[in-house]
Structure formats: structure tokens, C-alpha cells
Amino acid sequence: MLRLAHKHDRAIRYLHWVNVPLLAVMIWSGLLIYWAYDPYQIAVGNFVLVKFFPDWFYQALDLEHGLSTGMAFHFAFMWLFALNGLAFVAYTVWSGHWRELWPNRRTPIEALHVVLHDLKIRKQPLPLGKFNAAQKLAYCGVLLMGAGSVVTGLAIYKPTQLAGLTFLLGGYEATRLEHFALTVGYVLFVLVHVSQVIKAGWNNFRGMVTGYELVPTSNEVTTDVRPEPVAAS
Amino acid sequence: MSDPNPSPLPEPSGSAAPDAAMRRLTRRGFVRGGIAAAGGFLGWTWLRTRSKVDGISWPLRSVQRFNERLWGSDGLAPEFPANRAGDMKLNGPVGQPGNTDPAAWTVTTSQPNWVDRVFRLADLAGLPRVEMTTEFKCIEGWSQIVTWGGVRLADFVTAHRLGRRTDGVWHPYVSFATPDRAYYVSLDTPSALHPQTLLCDRMNGAALSPDHGGPLRLIITVKYGIKNIKWLNTIRFEDDRPADYWAERGYDWHAGL
Q1: What is the DSSP-derived secondary structure letter of residue B65?
Q2: Is B160 contained in some domain?
Q3: Does B138 lie in the same domain as B243?
Q4: What pLDDT is attached to residue B16?
Q5: Is B81 found in the same domain as B45?
Q6: Are B104 and B208 part of one and the same domain?
Q7: Nearest by CB to B63, which of A75, A87, A160?
């Protein structure tokens, strides 16, 4: 027997989906800006592991010679991105859903268990809850990264008027690197997030579209939502 | 914001009902999502196809004006110990004249309904000297701490009673150009009169070299490098916003930091 169980509030779903194109525009316009001065790389000694970015990358995504366009879009969509993020955080606080996301002392070790479980190294079942510990860390982390992007972005956007903030973040040059590194973090988050959603399956994905999931009625007593994605089958 | 509590669903009866309800919810969700995505795409297309003002669609230009009004141009840029100053990358050769002899260099000032006046570098000698170590920020993204020496543009303007109409009100804009007019910059008057805006003739303890704009350039800490015009030859106060080299090429006219 299956029943419908409410999973995600409408506000969470809408703000989550609105964030998708906003983040995409911010990253795209940010790359147009970064192209004009692109010194960052990860190197061991003189050996370059990753260069941000090789020429083929800019060419493939048509990111060359777009600094003025990039700035025009970045400094317009930043308002929408920041407001959407602020609304998301405000709603989780107001609705009490922050409790589902906020990690506690046990979260780091539980997150490790989740990773070991997903890698099929650890066999014990995971504790029930809306989000597992790894999800809590990832979702909390990405919200903090969003706040970090806004703060570091403001510090390099107005380094004279917000000179104190720029100073606290380590100066103009350091803050530009921090702003960039946070973006790399988003991209890594999105890669993991999307692959986990694919792994968790249709019922879980549909939860973010409709707000509801189909769950076995036997779970009714313990919780109105199921843990994901482990119990998805 | 919506109701934080789940919206009540019709109570399902029988085992097929949750499936049917889920199908209905799914259809509704994807139809709404599809409409929203189409709306977003239309909005994006609209934004990208608006008529352009100097290469940038007008709604984005409007946001630039909004940001400009929001942030203004005040605040002092941080200064650094002189030992943190270093050499600066060479950039922007547009407007470099063949002859940069300081003894022959002139600066012409003008404003509406007023005679043009021609100054020599020696005319700056009576003004208080300023030395400041600030971070120069190129719009490309790189930056460099440099020690600049010169006189405040505000002191020069005040000493020679420039920039005001006969009723004492400031002309709202100032434009600057190289001798050949190949490079030109315009500023709002408050930014031009900012205490860290210099007529600069020294860099890192030496005379400003011709490649860096010598004998005279503008240093303005509240703006990106593009406004720090080299080989400064004319200063003109205006009532309407004057032309600006990089604003005409798609950049934000304000370019404030």
C-alpha cells in the first residue's frame, strides 16, 4: 500500500527552481568577467594540475571578449540571486525547516557513514530522517557558500565603499580568488547533487516538482517522509 | 510565500487513489514548471533582444544607472604602507603622444560660457603636494598597489575657480582627453573633486614615465583604471554627460569602486 506524503513546501520548491537559472546566469557572466584576467590554477611545484581555464574551454563556451557584457549581466542578476537566496534562508528560518538542515555534533561522523554506505563499504542501515547527514552538510554548506559569494562579491564590487569588508576578507586580490573558488565549489556541488538525484530516482525527483512522494503506508507511524535516497526501492 | 503546511489533499480511498493523485500532481507540477520555464526563456530572450545603448541592451543599462545611484561615489579608498607599492603592468596605449616633454606640456581647461585657459605644469607648483599609496584596479580584474604623487584635482579647480556656473552651482560633469582626443573620459563632478583624485606626475618615487601617462595623468581611486586617463591634456566641465571611450564600447559609464 502506498500513500502520498508531503515532502517539500511550495516556497522551497519554487525558490529552489528559480535559483537554477539565476545561478547559471551568474556563473556564465562570471566566466565572461574572469576571462579578462584568468591567472588561477592548481599546481604542484611547476606542474600544473588544473588551469582555470584552457583556451579550448573559453572557445567551446563562447566566453571570449565579453567582459563588458559579463559585468552588465553580473551586476544586474546579482540582485535577483541575492534576493532569492535571502528568501530561501528566511523561509527555512520562519517555517522551522532549518532544523532539518542544521547539523549537530553527530552530523560529521554520520555524514561519513552515509558516504561509506553509498560506496557500499558500510552495510548498517542509515538513521531515518528527511535528510541524511551528508545531505545536511551539503545543503547547509551550499547555503553558506551562497552567502559567501554575495559577501565576497560585494567586497570586490565596491572595494572603496566597503573597504572594511574587503580588508577583513584578506584584501582585494585574495577576495577575488575566494569569490572564484566558491564558484568552483558550486559547480562541484551541482555535479554531485545532480548525480545523487539521478541515483535516488524518479519518486525523489518528483518530490521537488510536486511536493509529494509516494511512500509505503507502513512508514506512516514513524514519519511523514522517507529517508532518501537509500530506502527509495 | 506559501503556507508552510501541506495543502490538504482529497482523502484517497482504495489502493489506486494515491497513484492517481500522484499522477495528477505530477502533471500539474510539470505543466506549471514548463510554463515557468517558457516564461523565463521569453524573459531572457526579451532582455537579450532589446535595443542597445552602446552595445548593451537598455534594461541592463537602466540597472547600471540604478546601481550608480545606489552606491554613489563617496568613501575613501584604503591607503597602504609605501613599501607595498610595486611596478604596474602597462596597459592602454590609446592616445599616447609622440612628445611628452614636461616643459612643453599644457593642460587646457574649459567650461560652458567661459574662456578656455591654458596651464603649464609649472602652474601646479603652488598647490599642496599629495603622496598616497593606493591600489589601482583595472576593470580586467588585476590590481596593483602603487605610490602616486601629484596635486588634488579639487585643489587645482578651486585655486583657479573652475567648474562652477556664474550662480555658483557646479557643472555636473567633467570630461578629460589626450592631446589627439583618441582617448577620452568623463566623470561626475563629485568623483572628480574627491580628495583622492589627483593630477598625477609621480609614480613610486620617480617622475611619471611616458608609458604610464607622463608627464601628467589622472589618478582616481573611486573608479576603475579605465577612468584614470593618461597624457591628460584637456579638462572640460559640462552640463550634459560627455562622451566616454569605454562607455561607448559597452562598459558601465559610472565604473565606480
Answers
A1: H
A2: yes
A3: yes
A4: 60
A5: no
A6: yes
A7: A75
B122 and B205 housed in the same domain: yes
With H, G, I as helix, E, B as strand and everything else as coil, classify residue B76.
coil
CA distance A76 to chain B (A): 6
**The total number of structural domains that make up chain B:** 2
Residue B153 and residue B33 share a domain: no
Please give the C-alpha separations between residue A63 and each of A34, A84, B142, B191, in angstroms, as whole numbers: 9, 26, 18, 33
CATH classification of the domain holding B147: 3.90.420.10
- The Cα B232–Cα B96 span in angstroms is 10
- A200's grid cell: 535516488
Same domain, B137 and B242: yes
Angstrom distance (rounded) from CA B257 to CA B244: 17
In the 8-state DSSP scheme, what is residue A136?
A: H
SS3 B205: coil
Reported ipTM:
0.91
> What is the helix (H) or strand (E) element at residue B42, kind and residue range?
helix B16-49
- Yes or no, beta carbons of B61 and A72 under 8 Å apart: yes
pLDDT tens figures, A125-138: 777 777 888 888 88
Of B21, B28, B251, the CB nearest to A68: B251
- The per-residue pLDDT for A217 is 81
Report if residue B8 sits inside a domain: no
**What's the grid cell of residue A168?**
577583513
* Residue B34 structural domain: 21-50
The stretches of chain A forming alpha helices (DSSP H) are: 10-35, 55-60, 67-95, 98-101, 107-118, 133-157, 163-168, 172-200, 202-210
Same domain? B120 vs B245: yes
- What's the length of chain B? 257
A163:B75 CB<8 A: yes
Residue (of A161, A9, A61) closest to B3 by Cα position = A9
| Inter-chain Cβ pairs, chain A and chain B, closer than 8 A | 131
Cα(A155)–Cα(A174) distance, integer angstroms:
11
Domains observed in chain A = 2-30+78-232 (1.20.950.20)
Nearest CA in chain A to B67: A75
Contact A206 B26 (CB under 8 A): yes
Q: What is the pLDDT of residues A151-210, one digit of tens each?
A: 999 999 999 999 999 999 999 999 999 999 999 999 999 999 999 999 989 888 998 999
Q: Which residues in chain B touch residue A87, judged by CB atoms under 8 angstroms apart?
A: 1
Q: Which of A10, A75, A166 minimises the CB distance to B2? A: A10
pLDDT of residue B12: 47
Partner-chain residue, chosen from A36, A76, A94, that has the shortest CB–CB distance to B60: A76
Q: Do B12 and A3 touch (CB under 8 A)?
A: yes
